[in-house]
Amino acid sequence: MIIAGLDVGTSKVTTVIGELAPDGVLDIIGEGSVPSQGLKRGVVVNLERTTEAIRQSVHQAERVAGVKVERVLLGVGGPHLKSVTSHGLAAIRRGQSIGAADVERAIEQAKAYPFDAELELLHALPLEFKVDGQEGIRDPVGMAGVRLEVDVHLVAAGRGPLANLRRAVEEAGLDIEALVAQTLASGLGVLGPEEEHMTVLLLDVGGGTTDVAVFREGRLAHSSVLPLGGDHVTQDIAQLLKIPFEEAERVKRKYGAALPELADPELVLEINQESGSLGEVPAPELARIIRPRLREILHLARQSVDEALGPLEIKVNRVILTGGSALLRGFDLLARQQYGLPVRVGKPHGVSGLTDVVATPAHATAVGLVRYATTLPQTAPEPRRARERRGQREEKAKGESIWTRIKEILNNLF
């Protein structure tokens, strides 16, 4: 089975193609990443540029894999995503054990949460069940009880931004097999086996936004999107050093550090200023520009978790950093100082094939999208474009059948 994950981000568009072998091993056989110029903070602002970037990314991955992609699992991100944990309840008749239909009733009640009309539900993810007050149940089917309760994490997206993203993908000639929140996909991409028994905070620091996700025993228990990312760090450098954005991005990637003590005190950087002349800046000074914005991102992430679940230091066992900005030297050390928790940089794992290409924090979401496909039913709904093509074929066949019948009647008459 061929699977394609499409991660449309603010700074880049990445396509990863995987092949699921009969033995369950996921081989990564194709990858394509191109700059993204049609999005701002995860939202499409230029449809034509976004569509072209998607085409280029998919084409690159197809050339590497040697296969044609028609359907993709599409990652959805941006500040328009909203999430909440909702409670559902179902009564069970006495003398009967809990069945799958009872579980579905409880989940459906939780899904009835009154979201704004401009939001479309993406995910309803059960966290844990409770039977007659007994907590911590992961699968209640077959148990005895009269009251079934469930906490469900709901993730919804703005209908407008979602429609524009869908259109960009479809204009690129692709069907959408499933829409997946980037926070969920990133977790699927980097969580290790031992972390599926912990409470883990995952920060996916992209170009325009930072996805905040808390996974409790492998299940998404909290998610939010911060309107800050790596591009804001670059903007700070550009503004304070009076250099173009592209030059600030180059300097950040090559010499940047999250902590001044990690920078070489003897190193003086030559920078191309907006006036066209060369300037100089000590490497520790560059780190002092970078650090405040990263601290702000970490602070806002902590605030999000504190308000939803309680004190981060008490509720969370480990922190994982993903996204392109996770590669910034010392970012993990800064997070460890600020949170007082173990921190690691997350890279996709548990796959074979092009592991050297995708084993970076920047590929966490795209690889997670491919892995998400393995959780879908094999009888997935037929994509819209495929339905349209099938309908056109059926209409054409119907028309040909009617014309054949008319010719038969005319032949019999004459």
TrEMBL record:
GO process terms (BP): FtsZ-dependent cytokinesis
Domain of life where this protein originates: Bacteria
Entries under CDD domains matching the protein: ASKHA_NBD_FtsA
Keyword Transit peptide recorded: no
Gene3D superfamilies registered for this protein in UniProt: 3.30.420.40
Basic and acidic residues: compositionally biased ranges: 382-398
Transmembrane segments: none
Key words of the record: Cell cycle, Cell division, Cell membrane, Membrane
Residues annotated as domain SHS2: 3-190
The family this protein is said to belong to: Belongs to the FtsA/MreB family.
Name the record gives this protein: Cell division protein FtsA
Source organism (scientific name): Thermus tengchongensis
